[in-house]
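Hi support team,

I submitted a single chain yesterday and got back a structure, but I'm not sure I'm reading the token output correctly. Could someone confirm the output below corresponds to the sequence I sent? I've pasted both exactly as they appear in my results page.

Thanks,
R.
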Amino acid sequence: MSNDSAQVRERHKTLYFMDGNVVLLAPRADRSALLFRVHKSVLSSHSQIFADMFEVCSPSGCTSESEGDQLYDGVPLIHLSDNPDHIGSVLEVLYYQSDLPWMPRSPNYPALVTPILDLSRKYGIDRMYAQIVRHLESDWPQTLKDWDKLEKEIEIESTTSNSDVERIDNSFPEPAATIKLARQFDIPGVLPAAFYHLSRISILDDWDKTHADPSICIRNLTKRTVRWGLLSATDFRCLLLGKAEFADFLRGCINMEDLRHTTYSVSHRRNIACNAGEGLWKDILEKCLQSADPLALLKTSIEEDKDRGCNICTNILRAKILAVRAQIWEKLGDLFHLKDE
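Hi R., thanks for writing in. Yes, this is the structure output for that exact sequence:
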């Protein structure tokens, strides 16, 4: 930005330190500007890019207030092109670490941190970037055990919230915003769980419509909605591929060989073949193929089918269900073709 005598310049209320040794100018849309007087040492300790910038604009190169608009209030003036509110958010975190925004499991967290992540990447503020990524990853389970734990918490919340969809939605992360953020900033760790959750929800269960009119009936058992408008065409393709791959994977689990065994029959006084487990497993797979949430159905089946068949059947079937659930979780990235994009 060139010097403009008509430009209105406002000092930031809390980030204009009189002992600061550099002023950052960020333009507003109305052609005014916000000024931040900060300390080179603070910014340089977090960002090599800022350190290099300050080196270029050293006091020796700035001789007067009028020469190239290089000084302001007696210290070097640096023009930035970034949104002043976003710059302010980053500086507040650098000066007051406790101000780093974190709203655990909030559906609005991705939108809140997007500009901070963007500037952290632009200016190489690696520690801030990594901390936000850790926050985001903590919202989306990285293991099947953590997924089951989160699902239990959601179940409790759903039971105690009197079917208040908006309340449940606002208590847990929303997948489309997370996927958009993860794609933009290359955060692959959150994608498998986010896509799996996305696959459970009907395209008709739209966040914007439902939150505008809570009387709209929710069609999925999770009582959750999605900001469908945030998904790219590529991510819609991954979603559809994932649903098709899930069906193929489940059909491939039909193998009965490991369910066949013999058990002692008192009436026959000898060991006889027991096929109960085969029928149970086939029934479970049929239900999975009709379900939007195979992981949940398989978990429920462990308890529901424990009294059907002999003890050996029960143990073998339980082991098979646990193995298939683990395989599904490990294969989520492949099923949704996330590594292809």
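A quick pointer for reading it: Strands lie at 9-16, 22-27, 33-38, 71-72, 75-79, 261-265, 270-274. Let us know if anything else looks off.

Best,
Support desk
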